[in-house]
Write a structure and sequence with these properties.
By secondary structure, this protein is an alpha/beta fold. It is 24% helix and 15% strand. A 10-stranded mixed beta sheet has the order 7-6-5-4-12-1-13-14-2-15, with helices on both faces. The longest helix has 23 residues, at 297-319. The relative contact order is 0.17. Bound molecules: 2-acetamido-2-deoxy-6-O-sulfo-beta-D-galactopyranose (NG6) and calcium ion (CA). Calcium ion is lined by residues 44-45, 84, 281, 333-334.
């Protein structure tokens, strides 16, 4: 097993570090090193071209660059899906989201879409003896079937799938309700002013973007014309909970502070912090100290804000003296999008900045821009700074962490997750043999042996409402990704055998784990 090699290196690192200390200290040191603190940060809609360490030269991200410079920086890492909910679902369950039907972009009152019987990555890490916490954007639903009731203790919540502590934005910042939830309760909710939320019809009498466009401070370019909160028209209707509403400008400060508090509280035991930033998702509302600072409009400003957040987390680790043995992953849930539904001038103010890097498509797309994301892992005690060109998928974080922590998974847990710990730690360049991706319409793609196959999709998937090229086509597509990373030339017709072979491989992958028992029970 790959872990044994890895453990040898851990032992030697520990032996050197502990010098001539007593056996028990040495053992303690080994035990500690084998249990690094783990921080996993999902930025929202951050593109592979959005960071200066990935070549951006119109925007500067010094903190993230420093993280990359001290760790392993991936150039071929993928999110499971081109949108948030399925991408996060895949990472936390180790199962491709398209195996389950309700994993599309979740509304703000969605039930918890991860089955509470599922043995999640967080359950696994918790069983390895960690304190676990989730802070920031959640977007995997909360509560029971029929929709979340925000006026009582929300159950089930993230604490039913492994998190000891929760402080979350239920869905996205452009979706109601615009409130934080902490350990199942809406923060600062006045019981005399209960919250009502609907995604089907207007509730209450708060103004909406559709009826009162004159009240809006940020106009929609698409959708986003329901209840106006803080001048911004959102998706969905809400009323009540006035004292609980968040202030958009302060979200980064609030969630960064919660993350720092969690780290400080658990500094003396192994902890796992899963954090979702609201940046750089729409509406892009920077705090005044970042507003106007990028010269690229608010999209650039919130990249600076995101970089600040990462810097704050790094500084916290430094000041507590725990950076050395903290495994810190920073990545994005899907690719970049420029106009995502508000008139924030993101296109007009790009000023030569290329959020998708060289890649075709973007968020929502089957093309590389949809899922190829920045991915950085830093763990100073064990990992040497390097660039990693091996293919890596976020679906494999789960099994790789299980191996790192010596955890045996119950049957059926994380069915699609493969152990690639050495790749993750930059010690091997032999990555996955294939990568499966998913676009907005559940069109699947398969990357294998330098080729990329995009399965044909039916006419009704050809929708273009996102303004992004989704990659849907009734005909199969094949690109020689190794020579044509920007997917310019569909060579399916010239290579019928390869097209057929990849189509069959994808078919076989789809046919796996169709037995519902793959959702492993927590008590095997
Ligand atoms: C879309 C929204 C978009 C964004 C996305 C989810 C419109 C027109 N567009 O429906 O703004 O919220 O959903 O993004 O409503 S994600 O990153 O959380 O998946
Ligand atoms: Ca996203």
């Amino acid at each position: 097993m790959k872990t044994s090699l890895f453990q040898i290196s851990l032992l030697s690192t520990a032996a050197i570090a502990s010098g001539c200390g007593s056996m028990s200290q040495k053992q303690q040191r080994n035990a500690d090193i084998q249990k690094p603190n783990i921080i996993y940060i999902f930025a929202d809609d951050l593109g592979i071209g959005d960071l200066s360490c990935y070549g951006a030269n119109r925007v500067n991200t010094p903190n993230i660059d420093r993280l990359a410079g001290q760790g392993v920086q991936f150039t071929n890492a993928y999110a499971t899906s081109a949108t948030s909910t399925p991408s996060r679902y895949g990472m936390l369950t180790g199962m491709y989201p398209w195996r389950q039907t309700n994993t599309g972009i979740a509304p703000g009152n969605s039930e918890l879409i991860i089955d509470t019987n599922c043995y999640t990555m967080t359950n696994m890490i918790k069983n390895a003896g960690y304190a676990t916490g989730v802070v920031g954007k959640w977007h995997l639903g909360l509560g029971a079937k029929g929709g979340t009731d925000f006026n009582k203790k929300i159950s089930p919540n993230t604490q039913d799938i492994g998190f000891d502590y929760e402080f979350v934005i239920p869905a996205t910042v452009d979706r109601v309700p615009c409130v934080y939830v902490e350990n199942g309760r809406v923060v600062n909710l006045d019981p005399n002013d209960p919250i009502t939320v609907s995604y089907t019809e207007k509730v209450g009498n708060w103004p909406t973007g559709e009826e009162n466009p004159e009240l809006v401070t940020l106009k929609p370019s698409q959708g986003h014309n329901n209840t106006i909160i803080n001048g911004i028209p959102r998706i969905g209707w809400m009323t009540g909970g006035k004292s609980a509403l968040w202030v958009d400008e302060d979200i980064a400060d609030v969630i960064t502070d919660k993350a720092k508090q969690f780290i400080a509280k658990h500094q003396n035991e192994p902890f796992f912090l899963y954090m979702g930033t609201q940046d750089v998702h729409v509406p892009r509302v920077p705090h005044p100290r970042f507003a106007g600072k990028s010269g690229l409009g608010t999209r650039g400003d919130v990249i600076l804000q995101l970089d600040w957040t990462i810097g704050e987390i790094m500084n916290t680790l430094d000041s507590l003296n725990i950076a050395e043995n903290t495994l810190f992953i920073f990545t994005s849930d899907n690719g970049a999008v420029i106009d995502d539904g508000y008139q924030d001038m993101a296109y007009e103010l790009l000023n030569g900045h290329t959020p998708m890097g060289i890649y075709r498509g973007g968020k929502y797309s089957a093309y590389e821009g949809g899922t190829r994301v920045p991915f950085i892992i830093r763990w100073p005690a064990v990992v040497k700074p390097t660039k990693q060109a091996a293919p890596f998928s976020q679906i494999d974080v789960y099994a790789s962490f299980a191996s790192l922590l010596n955890q045996t998974l119950p049957d059926g847990a994380a069915p699609d997750s493969e152990e690639h710990l050495d790749v993750l730690l930059g010690k091997s360049s032999e990555g996955r043999t294939h990568i499966v991706q998913q676009n907005l319409n559940n069109t699947l793609t398969l990357i294998k042996g330098g080729w990329k196959y995009i399965e044909p999709s039916s006419e009704d998937a050809i929708e273009f409402w996102t303004k992004t090229e989704l990659g849907n086509d009734p005909e199969p597509q094949l690109y020689l990704l190794s020579n044509d990373p920007t997917e310019k030339e569909n060579v399916a017709k010239q290579n019928p055998e390869i097209t057929k072979e990849l189509a069959m491989s994808l078919q076989n992958i789809k046919a796996q784990h169709t037995d519902k028992a793959f959702i492993a029970k927590k008590t095997p």
